[in-house]
Amino acid sequence: MIPLKENEISSIESDMVEGDFRELEFSRNTVVIGSKLADKLEVNLGDPVDVSFPNSNPLSLRVVGIFHTGSPLDESLTYTSLDTAQEFYDVPDVINGISIRLEDFNRDREVAAEIGKTGYKAKGWTETNPAILHTIAVESISNYVIYSLIVVIASFGVVSTLNLSVISATSQIGMLRAMGATVSSIRTIFILQSGILGLLGALVGTLTGVAISLAIGQYEIPGASSELYGGLTTIPIIVRVGDILVIIIAVFLLNLIAGIYPAQQAAKLDLVKAISSK
């Protein structure tokens, strides 16, 4: 590749742990390799690496940099300048691939199709890495299922609380009816109670969840374990305002719906029995 432009595509310079990636631009017959490959070959910065391939010109390349991404690429990927690669394959003025970085990564297939119309073969990252999309889809579905179950279970708790409230307030409901309260007003009182409980619960729960999430995001993953998670040093946490609003509104509406049954039961209480109950 062209060293001065590669960083715009892969941000490789931020992954360098030893040496200088840009030295590939100024030194011939040099190479930058991954940390795991360096360990496997038992080479350090400045050591020579012999490379050969059928029908190519064998070269001895000097290691001028070692990168670490925390991914399998650390064991299989190497970088060298375009001039050195052309000399190795003995194909001057030839390239075998062009990498493109998009501002909107979701348009990869659209852009690949446009490039394909010009006669070149092009693939987006979603085509070359379908396993990533499958994993994201499975995790998204499982997350939505878990969220839905949590909200439904919480709504059952609200229903139980309102039912107990109706039972404990039976005599008071009878007194309200005797004082002229209508069936619809009794029903409205309990639906409002359900909505208030749902709104307060959603607000308190959401704020608590955000606080806990941000605290978890400060936790540093131990060095040995970070290798298993692509080199992450902390747990990535994303808090979206849109998600928070959707959760609050959904919980509020669901609790309003869940409060209809207890409210209906309260409104149906017999006036005489309600007043005489203890």
What structural class should be given to the helix and strand makeup? alpha+beta
Task: Provide a count of the helices.
Answer: 13
Give the domain tally: 2
**Helicity range:** 55-70%
Work out the radius of gyration. 32 Å
- Strand element count: 5
Mean pLDDT: 82
Question: What's the helix-strand series?
Answer: HEHEHEEEHHHHHHHHHH
Tell me, briefly, the overall form.
elongated
Low-pLDDT parts are none
Give the N-terminus to C-terminus distance in angstroms: 85 Å
What portion of the residues fall into strands of 2 or more residues? 5-15%
Task: Report on this structure.
The protein is an alpha+beta fold and about 280 residues long. About 55% of the residues lie in helices and about 10% in strands. The protein is built from 13 helices and five strands. It has helices spanning about 5-10, 25, 35-40, 80-90, 110-115, 125-130, 130-170, 170-180, 185-215, 225, 240-260, 260-265, 270-275, and strands at about 15-20, 30-35, 50, 60-65, 80. Strands 1, 2, 3, 4 and 5 form a five-stranded mixed β-sheet that branches. Helix 9 packs antiparallel against helix 11 (about 240-260). The N and C termini lie far apart (about 85 Å).
